[in-house]
């Protein structure tokens, strides 16, 4: 990539801050962790109410937009041809947002809630009420609310980028609210802040993925998880996702995501068939009722009245994570939506992934709770003594064909991390490139993708092998506060367009060259994004 096309004020601050954080954590880890932990605590103490209100507000706004006249607007104009089929569009959306976290946390997290419910609720640890609470909490954390946090800024960007022909920038979402002059003045800073949160989050997610894969591989290879083994795993993941991102949207990213989605479906069907099916359905139905009945109460639960820290440990912490990743995710999810209406966008990005997550939670969280409560499988001890990833492996050890299924599980985990990371890498390339518009080829270039992939891989390896992931993970979460303000401001653009729909309905839309899923086009290499919790 030519240096003339590089956006230096976006690239260099993010790059140098990441290197500085890596150096600081290596030189004095205790001070580094204490500082980041203090900053995180201050944010959660002072803004818990806003994270809770903001996340709920975005979900309500999505419903309002869906049923409004704006829902009929076609992204890119009436003549716009879809970039992707609905299935590939859905599979990319599913696999580049929450799929990695859903894979492992839906068996581990319910155990935390089962044996550690909020003190202010008065629930007894391990009780049937705690089991229902655990499942309802999983629905809250992993379905409609997080997808709404991703959907709203993505929709704003899609309409700004395609229908109003704005620049490839997070600042483009804010232009209807702040005006072109202010947005151009501060747009670079906004992009740099959002990029830093994403890159730090990517590093922690990749490190977590390497530990997960190393733990599973250790069951077959034996020996300890050494820096060499972690380095090899990270190198393979980085090489794979960089090649996938470099090959473009239709070749690498779409095919990898489609494969990942089919494998996840197979894994879910297998667990349903050979797990405690009736218990999954019964507990899921019962807990879904609790989730719906207490939705508004739980969504706005901050723990302030009882000085209960549980919401900050879990729900509000999750909202901060989703907010931190959402601005850059919006660049991808908005860009691949060309040719579909706003209502179709909300269905593919919010409704269908949320329903998938609810079914997945019923199957996997239900199985984990059943094995621990009904069969005394000791999963809680595995969680506390061995780690999050080992819970899922232990569950599969108790199912038929465990040796084969655990190998498949390792492969699915690998593909899940790759599909999340290749989209991130492409998004980073686009954000660091000058002059990308809906009329350009929108490819950030191979060089910047290789560079960022290498940097993120190196940071992940150093942190996970010699320092620990807590510091870089908290650095990513610190991005949740400024990202939340960005997204809430961007949501004002939707209200503006709801009042003035002609601004997006009547925008000129040059007819693009029709593209199919099997043919390359000038849109090859469209930036994408992922999320890991």
Radius of gyration, CA atoms, in whole angstroms = 22 Å
Measure the end-to-end span: 31 Å
Strand residue percentage: under 5%
Number of helices: 22
Protein model, in words:
Helix 8 packs antiparallel against helix 20 (470-478). This protein has 533 residues and is mainly alpha-helical. It is built from 22 helices and no strands. The longest helix is centred in the middle third of the chain and has 42 residues, at 180-221. Helices cover 74% and strands 0% of the residues.
Short structural summary:
This protein has helices at 8-27, 29-66, 86-95, 99-115, 128-142, 144-163, 175-178, 180-221, 227-246, 249-274, 277-293, 295-299, 310-313, 315-335, 342-373, 379-386, 388-397, 402-431, 446-467, 470-478, 480-499, 502-505. The protein is mostly helical and 533 residues long.
Layout of strands and helices, then pairs:
Elements: H1 8-27, H2 29-66, H3 86-95, H4 99-115, H5 128-142, H6 144-163, H7 175-178, H8 180-221, H9 227-246, H10 249-274, H11 277-293, H12 295-299, H13 310-313, H14 315-335, H15 342-373, H16 379-386, H17 388-397, H18 402-431, H19 446-467, H20 470-478, H21 480-499, H22 502-505
């Amino acid at each position: 990539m030519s240096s003339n096309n590089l956006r230096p004020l976006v690239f260099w601050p993010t790059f140098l801050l990441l290197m500085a954080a890596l150096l600081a954590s290596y030189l004095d880890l205790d001070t580094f962790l204490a500082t980041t932990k203090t900053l995180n605590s201050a944010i959660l103490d002072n803004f818990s109410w806003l994270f809770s209100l903001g996340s709920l507000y975005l979900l309500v706004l999505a419903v309002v937009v869906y049923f409004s006249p704006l829902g009929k607007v076609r992204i890119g104009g009436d003549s716009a041809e879809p970039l992707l089929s609905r299935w590939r569009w859905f599979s990319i959306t599913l696999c580049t947002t929450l799929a990695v976290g859903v894979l492992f946390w839906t068996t581990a997290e319910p155990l935390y809630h089962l044996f550690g419910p909020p003190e202010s609720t008065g629930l007894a640890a391990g009780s049937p009420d705690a089991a229902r609470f655990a499942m309802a909490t999983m629905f809250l954390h992993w379905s409609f609310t997080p997808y709404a946090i991703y959907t709203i800024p993505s929709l704003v960007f899609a309409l700004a980028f395609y229908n109003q022909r704005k620049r490839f920038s997070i600042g483009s979402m804010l232009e209807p609210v702040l005006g072109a002059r202010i947005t151009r003045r501060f747009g670079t800073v906004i992009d740099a802040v959002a990029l830093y949160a994403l890159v730090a989050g990517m590093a922690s997610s990749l490190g977590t993925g390497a530990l997960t894969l190393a733990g599973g591989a250790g069951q077959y290879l034996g020996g300890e998880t050494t820096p060499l083994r972690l380095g090899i795993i990270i190198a393979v993941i980085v090489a794979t996702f960089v090649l996938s991102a470099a090959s473009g949207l239709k070749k690498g990213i779409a095919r990898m995501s489609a494969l990942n989605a089919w494998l996840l479906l197979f894994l879910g069907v297998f667990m349903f068939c050979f797990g405690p099916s009736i218990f999954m359905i019964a507990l899921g139905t019962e807990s879904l009722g609790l989730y719906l009945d207490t939705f508004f109460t739980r969504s706005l639960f901050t723990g302030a009245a009882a000085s209960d820290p549980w919401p900050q440990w879990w729900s509000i912490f999750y909202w901060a994570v989703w907010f931190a990743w959402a601005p850059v995710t919006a660049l991808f999810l908005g860009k691949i939506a060309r040719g579909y209406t706003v209502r179709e966008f909300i269905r593919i990005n919010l409704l269908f992934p949320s329903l998938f997550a609810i079914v997945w939670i019923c199957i996997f969280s239900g199985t984990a709770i059943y094995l621990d409560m009904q069969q005394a499988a000791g999963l809680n001890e595995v969680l506390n003594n061995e780690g999050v990833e080992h819970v899922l492996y232990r569950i599969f050890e108790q199912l038929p064909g465990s040796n084969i299924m655990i190998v498949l599980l390792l492969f699915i985990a690998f593909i899940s991390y790759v599909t999340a990371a290749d989209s991130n890498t492409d998004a980073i390339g686009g954000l660091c490139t000058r002059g990308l518009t809906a009329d350009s080829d929108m490819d950030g270039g191979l060089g910047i993708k290789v560079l960022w992939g290498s940097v993120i891989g190196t940071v992940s390896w150093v942190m996970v092998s010699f320092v620990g992931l807590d510091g870089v993970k908290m650095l990513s979460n610190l991005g949740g506060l400024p990202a939340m303000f960005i997204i809430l401001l961007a949501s004002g653009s939707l209200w503006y367009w709801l009042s003035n729909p002609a601004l997006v309905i009547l925008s000129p839309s040059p007819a693009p060259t029709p593209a199919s899923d099997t043919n390359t086009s000038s849109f090859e290499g469209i930036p994408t994004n992922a999320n890991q919790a």
